[in-house]
Every structure is written in structure tokens, then in C-alpha cells.
């Protein structure tokens, strides 16, 4: 019989055995026993955030940039409810997070006790799984299982609700077990017959296209490496989703840019006209497919996904393959080589000639200006002035700036780009950047922000100050909820209802008040200097880049439209009123 | 286009598991025609949920995949798709009345093979098992004869042959 420990000690011991070195959290009555146990150990570092929502996003940033599970610790009631947005965000974007929540003692559960909330009830639909621990003997096993569930298969957030009497009670510790889970056993190897079928289809394709997403990132850096090889080997073009950026180096000549609503002209037209779509780890999101019944109408579809529920959800797959992206790409490559498959050079050349013609439209070009800072220009300068560094991590908030960052910044490697895609959570970028910086203390971590979004978690500047995290907040300040304003122009006759950001703070002074450096660029000539200084100072920086307030983000496929109905610039926007059907969509 | 499917789900008998399944149906807008749950293996701690649902083939496939990825779910079987199976449901009906109607109710109950579980001078409680639509028909006939109350279990089903779930 192993020695007796308190529940709190068991929790911390289990975290250590799961390889946890950092926890993002905020204390309160129900979790005081854990905080007390944290106080007397050195294995785990606790980062005190300023709001629990920030803790979850920080854990997401930590997880996305390391491939490890991010860990959160919050108190009962309001602590847990504040975490709900972050949990939903992690669920939508398949980020592995374990969130420990305090709970009132077991005998008070259901009594409307002080700071009681039905945490497992509230978080059931926004977690991959959750637990309420009612018995100290199951505590260690539950923590180990939570980590297993969070990271295996399609990753996601897991909540463990911990009543205070369990934390204070005594029990014994059980180490992680090597036995598999009794019911949750995701399939990793893809069915080899299907993979053979897929390779044969690839060899016969005339207009093939790889369409890859976050699943390749989730499968670890090896998957991106294997994908890059396979793309090279076949000579096929490849497009990536917002969540997949970095899975293939942006510098690859075979990369067509991002696909979808704000994706490139060449990517979307290639999607529309391809005869074989090879989807690896992407989920046919509506931001990508546009109008479903006109989506890629001439194509046969291979769909590789570790989660069977992603397959045939929105779009029917002709060759479905359930399995881990890394395993499947590896097997697909083996088959391709073993059978000595080769693309039909003439047909593939013709396809590339067509793609190059689309590329010739130069869809990301914008009207430059000598007097106004174009947001695209600011990002181009950021790209140039960070060129050659391989330690740049970009996080974003949500809005136009996010899309421009996706379009204009070069992602050469996986795990260096963290953005809120599925939920689109404003306020994600700053805390996520903290999480990234904690995991990579010497890296250059930049939150490409909008002035509206960054205010949603601006309290985290205080966390940044406390831990001396040198994160750079690069605000493309257009004094508008730009994305909202753009939709109001498109859908509501330019009536800017409540989308103007009045009474903004002075971001330079705001930075200074938190001990950070505040910088401002007002005209194009200021931009380089501001970026250089932002990078040079070994401190947190808020760079307030005052950009053109009227700029809109193109290309854009209006909601409810098909891929070839893309708007390439302001003139297209004026000429193409949105259908009524499209109006009801988001 | 839509089809009716009987799905059997074997789950860990733990708190919250039914809420997960029901939450999945309501959250994703799937239909539940009926749902029953009961422990079937106390030693292994397993319960069986029998769900009858209606949807297009694509939705039915989604439902099964969504159920299967819930952590405490051990297996999901689509009995409708898998072939021959026995399906049954139990209903209790209270029918109140006197005179001709009372006689007629008893006569029809006899034709349907319903049992009389209880009687007073003014009422019967009938018990009937069988296919859902047989019970629907019986209820339809009892309505004009003084039907007061119905309690139904929802369908349970099991596949034919020697294989288990
Ligand atoms: C303002 C705004 C605009 C947007 N515009 C666009 C846009 O123009 N283009 C765009 O692409 N997105 C856009 N998005 C993002 C969009 O909403 C979706 O989040 C995104 O398209 C989903 O990416 P994904 O398909 O790669 O799937 P993810 O959400 O990354 O899902 C990953 C998929 O891979 C699977 N998977 C997980 N792990 C593995 C593994 N190990 N092996 C195999 N499969 C695995 C999962 O089961 C899942 O199906 C926008 C978001 C916002 C907020
Ligand atoms: C929490 C939250 N609330 C509302 C929205 C809707 N929304 C999407 S983009 C946006 C405006 C963002 O403005 P800003 O951060 O300034 O970015 P910009 O589009 O101007 O670059 C809003 C309100 C959201 N995505 N998240
Ligand atoms: Mg803005």
C-alpha cells in the first residue's frame, strides 16, 4: 500500500507524472487546498492570469506551440463559468487542454451553496469530456485519464471538477497506467485498401489538389514533414485552411495560399475546378466550402480524418480514410512509391498552367498609399523585418487583421501560428501569446491585433508585466470593428450600427502604465522604425499602428456564394449585392 | 428521404452519461422518437441505451459517429441497418367508461392480445407489448372508448442470430 496523500497532493503528483511543467490559473475558495500544495513544491510553475478566460487561451497558446497538453486551474462557480469561452474555443479548434475546476464539498452539491455552479452540466457541450470526482480513490486515475482523452484521437478540452472535500481528504496515489482506455480507443492507422484506392485515384487525376488543415498540425511536426514530401513527390498543388497554415512551407512553389472566404483566388478556383480533392485533416468548414451544393462540383474526394464524425458531415467523401494524418500520409507515400505511380505530366502541366493564370490575377494586391498606412503594408513590413528568423510565433485576435495576417505572413513551419478559427473568439490573441511566450521564453511572439479585440482581454497586460513576458502586441488600429464594418457595407447599406470604436484608450500610455513599451506609427514612413524598435527592445511592447480606417479585406467569397463568385476588390463589392439566402448566413 | 433507425448504444453506467447522449441529440438538432436506458450488466457496469431516431442517411451516419466518439460509449449498433432484429415496446393504457364502450374496449383489447392489469367498475388498465405501430393503432382505437392516460416505454430491440453486441 502506497503512502497516503491529500487529494491536492495527488492532483499535483499526477500532473507531474503527466509531464506538466506549467499551469495557468486563478485562485479561489474551492481550490485553496491545491494552491497551498502548489506553494510548497517546485516542479510546476503557476502563471497567475488576470481573468480565467485568459488562463484557458494561454493554455491553448502553450499547447498549440508545443504539442503538449495545456493546463488550467480555476475555482468553482465564477472561476469555472469564466473558463467556458476558452473551453468552447479549444473544442472547436481541437486543442488539448485539461482544466481543473474547484467545486463545493460533495455534501453541499445541489444546495445552491456559495459559488456553486453545475460545472459538469455547463461544460458538457463545450468539452470533449468532463469528470466530477466524488471519490478520492478514483482521483489519480481520473487525472491520468483526462490527459489521455485530451491528447488522443481528435484533441480537445477536458474538465475535472474537484470538490473541496476530495482535495482535503486523504487517499493513495496511482501512477499512470499503460493499459488502454476501456472504451475510448481512436483508430490511428488508416485502412490500407482505402489508401491503395486513394493512391490509385491520385495517379489517375488530371486536376488534383491537396486541401489540408488543422488535423495535420494536430498530428505533430512529423505529419507536416511527411506532407511536404508527398506534395513534392507528386507535384500536385496544395492549399491550406486557416488552421492548417504552416503544414506546408509557405515558400513552397506548390502552395497556393489559404483557401476559403478570405483565401486566394487561385486556391478557391482550384478547389472549384479540381477533379480530385485530397483532404487531409480539414473539416469542410462553411468558411471553406461556401455554398455546399456548388462546392467543387467536378471532384472526387479523398477525406482523411481521425474523427469519423468529420467524414460525410457536410460533404460526401468518395474515399473516406479514418486515421491519424501522419500515419496515413506515410502509408500513402509508401504505396505511391511502391507502385511507381507518377502523375500524367502533360495533364498536370496543363493544370499548373491554368493555376498560374489564376495566380496572375495577383489577388492580394492592394492600393498602396504614401500618406495612409495600409494594414497590408504594415504586415508586409513585419514580414520583411522578421525574415530569416525561425523563432517567430504569431497569434491573432479576430477580425480583418486576422485574415490579413493569414494572407500576408509567411508560415514555414507548424505550431508557429495560433488563431481562433472555429469559434472566432475576440480576445484570444493576447493571452495566447502569453502562453506561447511562457513555453518559448526567447522567441519573438507577436499578437497581430485589432484595437477592438485586444480590449477584450487587455487585463492580461498585468500578467505580461508580472512574468516579464516580452510579447509584442501589433495593433492594426482602424478605430472600427473592421470586420463588422465590412459586413455592414456588404449587407446593410453601409449603416455602421455600433461598429465604430469610440473612446479608445491611448495605447502608448496604456502600455506604459503596465511597464511595457508603447510605440505608435501614424504614417507609412514610421512603420519600419516602429517594427525595428518593437523587435529590439527586450520588453513587452504595444505597437499602435494607425491604419487606413476604410480598408476592407479581399478576396472575399460572400457567405452563401460559390467559390467562383469571389469578390476581388472594392469595385466587385459594389457591383455584387448579396442574395437573400446569403443574408441569413453568418 | 428520411428513415427510421433503431440504434443500440452500450455505455458505462456512470452519472451524466444519459445527459451526454440527450445533449448530443438536442444540441445538434437530431430527432429522438424514443429513448430507453437501463443497466444490462451490473458487474461490468454497463448500461444499454436504445434510441429510435429519424433522419436522412447522412444524418443517421452522423448520429452514430457522434455517439461513438463520446468517451463512455463502448459500442454503437444500428439494428435497422444490420438486418433482422426483434423490436418491441410496452404500453400501459388507462381506459375509463361504462356500458357499451366498456364492453367494446375489452373486446378490442382481447383482439390485440392486451392484458388487463387492473380493473375498477369504471376503468381498465391494459398492458400491451409489440411493435410501436401496433401500439399506436391500439391507442387510436381506445381514444373514442374513454382513453384517459398512456405510459409507454419506447422501443427496445435486439438483433437476431447468435452474435451479441
Ligand atoms: C473571421 C474569420 C474568417 C475565417 N475565414 C476563413 C477562411 O477564409 N479560410 C479558412 O480556411 N478558414 C477560415 N476561418 C476559420 C474557419 O472558421 C475554420 O476554423 C477553419 O476553416 C477550420 O479549419 P480545418 O478545416 O483545418 O479544421 P480544424 O478545425 O483545424 O479541424 C481539424 C480536423 O482534423 C481532424 N484531426 C485532428 N487531429 C487529427 C489527426 N491527428 N489526424 C487526422 N485528422 C485529425 C479533426 O477531427 C478535424 O476534423 C475563419 C475564421 C474566422 C474567425
Ligand atoms: C467575443 C466576440 N464578440 C463578437 C465577435 C464578432 N466580431 C467578429 S470580428 C469583430 C470586430 C473585430 O474588430 P477589431 O478587433 O478591431 O478587428 P478588425 O476587424 O478591425 O481588424 C467582431 C465584433 C467575435 N468574433 N467575438
Ligand atoms: Mg479594428
Task: Give the helices and strands, then pairings.
The complex is a heterodimer of chains A (586) and B (165).
Chain A lengths: L3 E3 H11 L4 E4 L6 H8 L5 E4 L3 H15 L3 E5 L3 H5 L1 H9 L4 E7 L15 H5 L5 E4 L6 H13 L5 E7 H5 L1 E3 L19 H13 L3 E5 L1 H5 L2 H14 L3 E3 L14 E4 L6 H9 L2 E5 L5 H4 L10 E6 L13 E4 L2 H14 L6 H15 L15 H11 L6 E5 L3 H9 L8 E2 L10 H11 L4 E7 H4 L6 H6 L5 E6 L4 H10 L15 H7 L3 E5 L2 H13 L4 E6 L23 H6 L4 H4 L3
Parallel strand pairs in A: 2-3, 2-4, 4-5, 5-7, 6-7, 9-10, 9-12, 10-11, 12-13, 13-14, 15-16, 15-17, 17-18, 18-20, 19-20
Antiparallel strand pairs in A: 1-8
Helix pairs in contact in A: 1-2, 1-7, 3-5, 3-18, 9-14, 11-14, 12-15, 16-17, 16-23
Chain B lengths: L2 E10 L4 H11 L6 E8 L4 E10 L1 H12 L4 E6 H4 L2 E12 L3 H13 L2 E5 L3 E8 L1 H11 L4 E6 L3 E4 L6
Antiparallel strand pairs in B: 1-3, 1-4, 2-3, 5-7, 5-8, 5-9, 6-7
Helix pairs in contact in B: 4-5
The structure holds flavin-adenine dinucleotide, thiamine diphosphate and magnesium ion (MG).
- What is the C-alpha radius of gyration of chain B, as a whole number of Å? 19 Å
Percent helix of chain A, as a range, is 25-40%
Number of helices of chain B: 5
Average pLDDT taken over every residue of chain A: 96
- The sequence of SSEs of chain B as H and E is EHEEHEHEHEEHEE
The helix content of chain B, as a percent range, equals 25-40%
Q: Which quaternary structure do these chains form?
A: heterodimer
Please, could you describe this protein's structure?
The complex is a heterodimer of chains A (586) and B (165). Chain A has 25 helices and 20 strands. In chain A, helix 9 crosses helix 14 and helix 11 runs parallel beside helix 14. The mean pLDDT of chain A is 96. The N and C termini of chain A lie far apart (58 Å). With 586 residues, chain A is of the alpha/beta class. Chain B is α+β, with helices and mostly antiparallel strands and 165 residues long. In chain B, 31% of the residues lie in helices and 42% in strands. Chain B has five helices and nine strands; from the N terminus they run E-H-E-E-H-E-H-E-H-E-E-H-E-E. Chain B has helices at residues 17-27, 57-68, 79-82, 100-112, 132-142; strands spanning 3-12, 34-41, 46-55, 73-78, 85-96, 115-119, 123-130, 147-152, 156-159. In chain B, the strands form two sheets. In chain B, strands 5, 6, 7, 8 and 9 form a five-stranded antiparallel beta sheet that branches. In chain B, strands 2-3-1-4 form a four-stranded antiparallel beta sheet. The model of chain B has no long low-confidence stretch (mean pLDDT 97). The interface between A and B is medium-sized, with 22 and 19 residues. Bound molecules: flavin-adenine dinucleotide (FAD), thiamine diphosphate and magnesium ion (MG).
Amino acid at each position: 500500500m502506497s503512502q497516503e496523500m491529500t487529494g491536492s497532493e495527488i492532483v499535483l503528483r499526477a500532473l507531474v507524472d503527466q509531464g506538466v511543467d506549467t499551469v495557468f490559473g486563478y485562485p479561489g475558495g474551492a481550490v485553496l487546498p491545491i494552491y497551498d500544495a502548489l506553494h510548497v513544491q517546485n516542479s510546476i510553475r503557476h502563471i497567475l492570469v488576470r481573468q480565467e478566460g485568459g488562463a484557458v487561451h494561454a493554455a491553448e497558446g502553450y499547447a498549440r506551440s508545443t504539442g503538449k497538453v495545456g493546463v488550467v486551474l480555476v475555482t468553482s462557480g465564477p472561476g469555472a463559468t469564466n473558463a467556458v469561452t476558452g473551453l468552447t474555443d479549444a473544442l472547436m479548434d481541437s486543442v488539448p487542454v485539461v482544466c481543473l475546476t474547484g467545486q463545493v464539498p460533495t455534501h453541499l452539491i445541489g444546495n445552491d451553496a456559495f459559488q456553486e455552479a453545475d460545472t459538469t452540466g455547463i461544460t458538457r457541450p463545450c468539452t470533449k469530456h468532463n469528470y466530477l470526482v466524488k471519490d478520492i480513490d478514483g482521483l489519480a486515475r481520473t487525472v491520468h485519464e483526462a490527459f489521455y482523452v485530451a491528447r488522443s484521437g481528435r484533441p480537445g478540452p477536458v474538465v475535472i471538477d474537484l470538490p473541496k472535500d476530495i482535495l482535503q481528504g486523504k487517499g493513495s496515489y496511482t501512477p499512470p497506467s499503460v493499459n488502454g482506455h476501456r472504451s475510448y480507443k481512436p483508430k490511428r492507422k488508416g485502412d490500407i485498401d482505402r489508401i491503395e484506392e486513394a493512391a490509385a485515384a491520385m495517379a489517375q487525376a488530371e486536376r488534383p489538389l491537396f486541401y489540408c488543415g488543422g488535423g495535420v498540425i494536430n498530428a505533430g511536426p512529423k505529419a507536416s514533414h511527411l506532407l511536404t514530401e508527398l506534395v513534392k513527390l507528386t507535384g500536385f498543388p496544395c492549399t491550406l485552411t486557416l488552421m492548417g497554415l504552416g503544414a506546408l512551407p509557405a515558400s513552397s512553389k506548390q502552395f497556393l495560399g489559404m483557401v476559403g472566404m478570405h483565401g486566394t483566388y487561385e486556391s478557391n478556383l482550384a478547389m472549384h475546378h479540381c477533379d480530385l480533392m485530397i483532404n487531409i485533416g480539414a473539416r469542410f468548414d462553411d468558411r471553406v466550402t461556401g455554398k455546399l451544393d456548388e462546392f467543387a462540383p467536378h471532384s472526387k474526394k479523398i477525406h482523411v480524418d481521425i474523427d469519423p464524425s468529420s467524414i460525410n458531415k457536410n460533404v460526401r467523401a468518395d474515399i473516406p480514410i479514418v486515421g491519424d494524418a501522419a500515419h496515413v500520409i506515410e502509408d500513402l507515400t509508401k504505396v505511391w512509391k511502391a507502385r511507381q505511380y507518377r502523375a500524367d505530366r502533360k495533364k498536370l502541366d496543363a493544370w499548373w498552367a491554368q493555376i498560374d493564370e489564376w495566380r496572375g490575377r495577383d489577388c492580394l494586391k492592394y492600393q498602396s498609399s504614401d500618406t495612409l498606412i495600409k494594414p497590408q503594408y504594415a504586415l508586409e513590413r513585419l514580414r520583411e523585418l522578421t525574415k530569416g528568423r525561425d523563432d517567430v510565433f504569431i497569434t491573432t485576435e479576430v477580425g480583418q487583421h486576422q485574415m490579413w495576417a493569414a494572407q500576408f505572413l509567411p508560415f514555414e513551419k507548424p505550431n508557429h501560428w495560433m488563431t481562433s478559427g472555429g469559434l472566432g473568439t475576440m480576445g484570444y490573441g493576447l493571452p495566447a501569446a502569453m502562453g506561447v511566450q511562457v513555453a518559448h521564453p526567447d522567441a519573438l511572439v507577436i499578437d497581430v491585433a485589432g484595437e477592438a479585440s485586444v480590449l477584450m482581454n487587455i487585463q492580461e497586460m498585468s500578467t505580461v508585466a508580472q512574468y516579464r513576458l516580452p510579447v509584442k502586441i501589433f495593433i492594426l488600429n482602424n478605430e472600427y470593428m473592421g470586420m463588422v464594418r465590412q459586413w455592414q457595407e456588404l449587407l446593410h447599406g453601409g449603416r455602421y450600427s455600433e461598429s465604430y470604436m469610440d473612446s479608445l484608450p491611448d495605447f502608448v500610455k496604456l502600455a506604459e502604465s503596465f511597464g511595457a513599451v508603447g510605440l505608435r506609427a501614424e504614417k507609412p514612413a514610421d512603420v519600419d522604425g516602429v517594427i525595428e524598435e518593437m523587435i529590439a527592445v527586450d520588453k513587452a511592447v504595444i505597437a499602435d499602428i494607425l491604419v487606413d480606417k476604410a480598408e476592407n479585406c479581399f478576396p472575399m467569397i460572400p457567405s452563401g456564394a460559390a467559390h467562383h463568385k469571389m469578390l476581388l476588390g472594392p469595385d466587385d463589392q459594389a457591383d455584387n449585392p448579396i442574395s437573400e439566402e446569403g443574408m441569413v448566413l453568418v | 428521404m428520411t428513415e427510421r433507425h433503431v440504434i443500440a448504444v452500450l455505455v458505462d453506467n456512470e452519472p451524466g452519461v444519459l445527459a451526454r447522449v440527450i445533449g448530443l441529440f438536442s444540441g445538434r438538432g437530431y430527432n429522438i422518437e424514443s429513448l430507453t436506458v437501463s443497466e444490462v450488466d451490473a458487474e461490468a457496469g454497463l448500461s444499454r441505451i436504445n434510441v429510435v431516431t429519424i433522419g436522412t442517411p447522412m444524418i443517421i451516419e452522423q448520429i452514430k459517429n457522434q455517439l461513438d466518439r463520446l468517451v463512455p460509449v463502448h459500442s454503437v449498433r444500428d439494428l435497422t441497418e444490420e438486418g433482422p432484429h426483434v423490436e418491441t415496446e410496452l404500453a400501459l393504457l388507462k381506459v375509463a367508461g361504462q356500458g357499451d364502450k366498456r364492453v367494446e374496449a375489452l373486446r378490442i383489447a382481447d383482439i390485440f392480445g392486451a392484458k388487463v392489469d387492473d380493473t375498477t367498475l369504471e376503468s381498465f388498465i391494459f398492458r400491451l407489448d409489440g411493435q410501436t405501430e401496433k401500439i399506436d393503432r391500439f391507442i387510436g382505437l381506445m381514444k373514442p372508448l374513454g382513453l384517459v392516460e398512456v405510459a409507454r416505454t419506447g422501443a427496445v430491440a435486439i438483433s437476431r442470430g447468435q452474435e451479441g453486441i
